[in-house]
From TrEMBL:
Cell wall biogenesis/degradation among keywords: no
Domain of life: Eukaryota
Record SUPFAM superfamilies: HSP20-like chaperones
Keywords: Stress response
Entry-linked InterPro entries: A-crystallin/Hsp20_dom, HSP20-like_chaperone, Small_HSP
Protein name in UniProt: SHSP domain-containing protein
Stated family: Belongs to the small heat shock protein (HSP20) family.
Domain SHSP residues, every copy: 55-177
Spans traversing the lipid bilayer: none
Length: 177
């Protein structure tokens, strides 16, 4: 008796498992179909939601251009707002990789302005927070580079690196005794 009453429910559940939604262009989808998958199925790809668009302002990758000029690599990386003292460039893995690390701190106020505003307004509350971002990018290089001869400059938010390659001897003869 109970199963006869629940038969429509079982039928609906069985049909929902085999349902494949039609593929549509995002422009023609209804608004509910364009919601983030993290909200519809929050645990399907837990770490994937950190890579999605709603966290893009926190987890931003810097744009890098790498050009091979035969005897050297030229790398240009966009780092808007980053100061020289908050930038770290390292060569690792025996000259085969380049690590660029930048920290960005932006405050909505200036230290001197904040002190003068506090003297003027004694009865008002104001909450000001600072925003910090941390960018890390590792680039693997096809040829070993000479870390001692790297030239780096930071102008207008663009880091330019001239990285000379080392001369590879090819094969080395080993004398057997």
């Amino acid at each position: 008796m109970i199963f006869r009453r629940c038969r429509p429910l079982f039928h609906t559940l069985r049909k929902s498992q085999h349902y494949v939604p039609p593929t549509q262009h995002p422009r023609f989808r209804p608004p509910q179909a364009t919601t983030s998958a993290a909200f519809v199925h929050p645990f399907r790809d837990f770490w994937g939601m950190w890579r999605s668009g709603w966290m893009s302002d926190i987890q931003t990758r810097m744009a890098i251009d790498l050009v091979d000029h035969g005897d050297a690599y030229i790398i240009e990386a966009e780092l808007p707002g980053v100061k020289r003292d908050r930038l770290d460039v390292r060569v690792g893995d025996h000259g085969r990789s380049l690590l660029i690390e930048a920290k960005l701190e932006s405050r909505p106020w200036d230290e001197t302005d904040h002190a003068s505003q506090e003297k003027e307004r004694t009865n008002e509350w104001q909450i000001l927070s600072e925003r910090t971002s941390h960018f890390v990018r590792k680039v693997w290089l096809p040829h070993q580079v000479d870390a001692a001869r790297i030239n780096a400059s930071l102008e207008d938010g663009v880091l330019k690196l001239h990285i000379p390659k080392t001369k590879e001897d090819g094969s080395v003869r080993v004398d057997v005794v």
